[in-house]
Amino acid sequence: MLHEDADLVAIAKPPGLLVHPSALDAQEERSALKLLRDQRGERLWPLHRLDKATSGVLVFARHPQAASEFGRAFEEGRVSKRYLALVRGWPPERGAIEQSLARDPEQPSQGQERIVALTRFERLACFEWPFQADARHATSRYALVAAEPVTGRRHQIRRHFKHIAHPLVGDTTHGKGAHNRAVAQWLGASRLWLHCEWMELPGRPRIVAPPGPEWAALLANVPRA
User: Fold this and answer.
1) Using CA atoms, how far apart are residues 11 and 118, in angstroms rounded to an integer?
2) What is each CA distance from 151 to 33, 53, 79, 128, 190, in whole angstroms?
3) More exposed terminus of the chain, fewer Cβ within 10 Å: N or C?
4) What CATH number is given for 3-219 in this structure?
5) What span, in angstroms and rounded, lies between the C-alpha atoms of 38 and 68?
6) Residue 9, SS3?
7) Per-residue pLDDT tens for 69-127?
8) Is the pLDDT of residue 207 over 80?
9) How many CB atoms lie within 10 A of CB 7?
10) Which of 87, 69, 61, 71 is nearest to 162 (CA)?
């Protein structure tokens, strides 16, 4: 448990666990919502979503009034959050990606309503590793970035970094298979390299979920706040 008060409860979601049951993964019976409800013996309301493959801070409301109040805070952009991501290539030291996105990433973009989306990012570290994932280059370059999504669209960070040609490593939908496989072998871990490190809700202290041990090699030379 990361945080608990009269209105909220927050956990560190591991990769590979659904937030709640989904028709997109109908065969999967386990979900963070069900496990936490069974453990605590109380009804809970998820305030936001993390993709199944993403780890990190996950927050639930403990009663309908809190679900409504904090749900509005998410919708109105009054919740701050920071993710760690490993991306292909070396993006700029910092920047903002302002690119409207189709509402449903599971469907073809053509013909869909496009909604405003903004992600700010900072490059934390650069890596050049001695393996070949692209026939044009003898080595492969990657970067650790901190991403702060100002809006909260589905797959926003994943789609935005694909848009600037720096897709997330381990992303089987928006990334590159050759890089996913090469990095998994190099780091000894196969996952989507995306982790929600902290979140701040109005009137609440910052909720922090330290990244798992598989991130240690990436964070070794990065000063931590």
Assistant:
1) 26
2) 23, 20, 9, 31, 28
3) C
4) 3.30.2350.10
5) 23
6) strand
7) 999 999 999 999 999 999 999 999 999 999 999 877 767 777 778 899 999 999 999 99
8) yes
9) 17
10) 87
When computed from its CA atoms, the radius of gyration of the chain, rounded to whole angstroms, is 18
Task: Just list the catalytic residues.
Answer: 51
Q: Mind listing the pLDDT tens digit for each residue in 147-186?
A: 999 999 999 999 999 999 999 999 999 999 999 999 999 9
> CB count, 10 Å around CB of 67?
18
The encoded tokens of residue 109 equal 């973009």
Contacts of 168 (CB under 8 A, 6+ apart): 85, 86, 87, 88, 157, 158, 161, 162, 174, 175, 192, 193, 194
| pLDDT-derived band at 24, boundaries 50, 70, 90 | low
Q: Are 78 and 202 in contact (CB under 8 A)?
A: yes
Task: Give the pLDDT of residue 90.
Answer: 98
Whether the model clears a pTM of 0.90, i.e. scores above it, the answer is yes
Amino acid at 171: D
Domain boundaries, the chain: 3-219
Q: What number of other Cβ atoms are within 10 A of residue 126's Cβ?
A: 13
User: What whole-number distance in Å separates Cα of residue 92 and Cα of residue 151?
Assistant: 21
Whether the CB-CB separation of 114 and 195 falls below 8 Å is answered with: no
Q: Comparing C-alpha atoms, which of 74, 62, 43 is closest to residue 3?
A: 62
